[in-house]
Write a structure and sequence with these properties.
Helices cover 73% and strands 0% of the residues. It is mainly alpha-helical. It is elongated, with a radius of gyration of 21 Å.
Length: 148
C-alpha cells in the first residue's frame, strides 16, 4: 500500500509504520510530506490548547472578581475550573517551555475573548470588565492566586 493510500485510509497504521521506519533508520522510505504536516499540526494543537486553557482561567478569574455576590453559589465550581486549567497549563509549559512565548504573544487576544465570555456567562455588560487585563501572567500561573 502506498504512503498516500495508507495515510488516507488507516492513519493509525501510517503512524505505526512511520515510527517503525524511524526506529529502523529507514529514512528513505518515510512519507516526509505527511510527516512534516503532522509535526506542524502537533505544534498548532499545543498552541490551541495553551490558548484555550488561558482563556478559561482568565474568564473564571473575571467572574470571581466581578461577581463576589454569587461566589456562594458558583465559587467552588469556578475555583475547581481555575485550579484544573492552571495545573494543566503549567504541565503543558513544563513539557514545552518554549510555549511561554506564545502565551505572552496571545495574551491580549485571549483576554479579550475571556472578557466577552465572562460577560456572556454572567449577563454583565462587557464594559464592566476592564479593556486591559487586570491580572498579570505571574498571577494567572500562581496556584494560590485569586483576585479580591
Amino acid at each position: 500500500m502506498s504512503d498516500r493510500v495508507l495515510y488516507d485510509q488507516d492513519f493509525y497504521l501510517w503512524l505505526q509504520t512511520t515510527a517503525n521506519l524511524l526506529k529502523d533508520k529507514r529514512f528513505d522510505e518515510l512519507d516526509l510530506a505527511h510527516l512534516v504536516e503532522e509535526i506542524e499540526s502537533m505544534g498548532r494543537s499545543e498552541k490551541r490548547e495553551l490558548k484555550s486553557r488561558l482563556k478559561l482561567i482568565l474568564s473564571h478569574l473575571l467572574k470571581w472578581q466581578y461577581q463576589p455576590q454569587v461566589r456562594p453559589y458558583y465559587g467552588n465550581s469556578w475555583i475547581s475550573t481555575i485550579v484544573t486549567q492552571r495545573s494543566d497549563l503549567l504541565l503543558l509549559l513544563a513539557d514545552s517551555p518554549s510555549l511561554k512565548g506564545s502565551l505572552e504573544q496571545s495574551w491580549q487576544d485571549c483576554y479579550e475573548i475571556a472578557r466577552r465570555d465572562a460577560a456572556n456567562e454572567t449577563g454583565l455588560s462587557v464594559e464592566v470588565f476592564p479593556v486591559d487585563c487586570p491580572f498579570d501572567l505571574a498571577e494567572v500561573l500562581n496556584p494560590d492566586y485569586l483576585p479580591k
